[in-house]
Amino acid sequence: MAEFDVDAMIRRFSERAQAVRDRPLPPVAGEERKKFISQAQTDYTDFALIANASWEAQDEELVLRIPLGKQD
What we know:
elongated, alpha+beta
């Protein structure tokens, strides 16, 4: 089995979140623009959630802990 680097995976999700945030809007207008913006917001949220996760291996399963509220 190939070695799996969870920290590297989480870094990739962080990079993806930043790429979505930095992505310029294409030259679309109207309904297509709204769809693009909505999808970008969803993508950013998904990637950022994983990027902020902590992890542990538990009973041969990868467990991601994703904070859902503000951290003190």
